[in-house]
Automatic annotation (TrEMBL):
The chain crosses the membrane at residues 21-41, 53-75, 96-116, 136-159, 171-192, 242-266. This is ABC transporter permease. Keywords: Membrane, Transmembrane, Transmembrane helix. The keyword Cytoplasm does not apply. It comes from Oceanobacillus halophilus. It holds the Pfam family ABC2_membrane_2.
Length: 273
């Protein structure tokens, strides 16, 4: 019950936060712009110019804002003294961070639902119809991406001492996983023997949540051929009957591990003063 109490408290605070509505407006504008300014690039199966553009913008925009929003929200609890008050109720850091994750997850889910729904409605009114299947798919893609990075952001906020540190670390994580990762991976693989490339490429994909979600989503939409023969057996398990189950388990592992790490760090820092 304490977890849900923290979650409800977080929802109330989030609804009063100007960052929440700034995020909503920004995301809605970007999604609407992509749907209205589609370029007509040739498609591969269900993977069209619209889905490709939406995926790229989502990958650049959503993790960054989620990292900043979750990290600052978490570190604020220490800076404003709220955590010291909550400790009087014998609340563990783990239960507190899980409740915070649930509350912020509800807020992000509401923002994403409104943004995609509103943008989809406007594009339909303007005559640029988008299939419900594609819209729902990208809503799910964005939701999963946001939930993973929300767990990472809470972990960042747990060990950050102030808002500035949380901001810098969040931007650093975003830059590394979204911008620097492909360049770094290509540079490293170019120095390795050919037999090592495939296993290291697969392991590295699981280590980067953004890359893992992107590759799985593209394969699920029938565009797995663009990744080359190194990912042939990925296409097999992604399109199998247990593909979604494996994907969901890995996502929950990512979220659980990041929140647990944040709780352990938070507890140690509390003990050390």
């Amino acid at each position: 019950m304490r977890i849900f109490t923290i979650a409800f408290r977080e929802i109330k605070l989030g609804m009063r936060n100007s960052w929440t509505y700034s995020f909503l407006i920004l995301l809605t504008i970007f999604i609407l712009a992509v749907l209205l300014l589609q370029s007509g690039v040739p498609s591969t199966g269900e993977y069209t110019d619209i889905t490709g553009a939406m995926m790229n913008i989502t990958l650049y925009l959503l993790p960054l804002i989620t990292l900043l929003l979750g990290g600052i929200s978490t570190v604020n609890e220490k800076e404003d003294g709220h955590w010291n008050l909550l400790t009087t109720y014998n609340l563990s850091p783990y239960h507190f961070l899980v409740g915070k994750w649930l509350g912020l997850a509800v807020i992000l889910l509401a923002i994403l639902s409104f943004s995609f729904g509103f943008a989809g409605l406007l594009t339909t009114l303007f005559g640029n119809s988008l299939s419900i299947h594609t819209l729902v798919f990208f809503w799910g893609f964005s939701t999963i991406l946001a939930m993973i990075y929300l767990g990472i952001s809470i972990s960042i906020g747990a060990f950050s001492k102030n808002r500035w540190q949380s901001l810098m670390v969040g931007i650093g994580v975003w830059f590394f996983t979204i911008i620097l990762w492909p360049l770094l991976l290509i540079s490293i693989l170019s120095f390795l023997p050919y037999p090592w490339i495939k296993p290291i490429l697969e392991i590295s994909t699981f280590l980067n949540p953004a890359e893992f979600v992107r590759i799985f989503s593209m394969m699920h939409m029938g565009a797995g051929s663009v990744f080359g023969p190194e990912y042939n057996h990925w296409v097999t398990w992604v399109e199998s009957s247990f593909g979604l189950s494996i994907f969901a388990i890995l996502i929950f592992i990512w979220i659980g591990v990041t929140i647990t790490i944040g709780a352990v760090v938070w507890e140690r820092m509390s003990r050390n003063g």
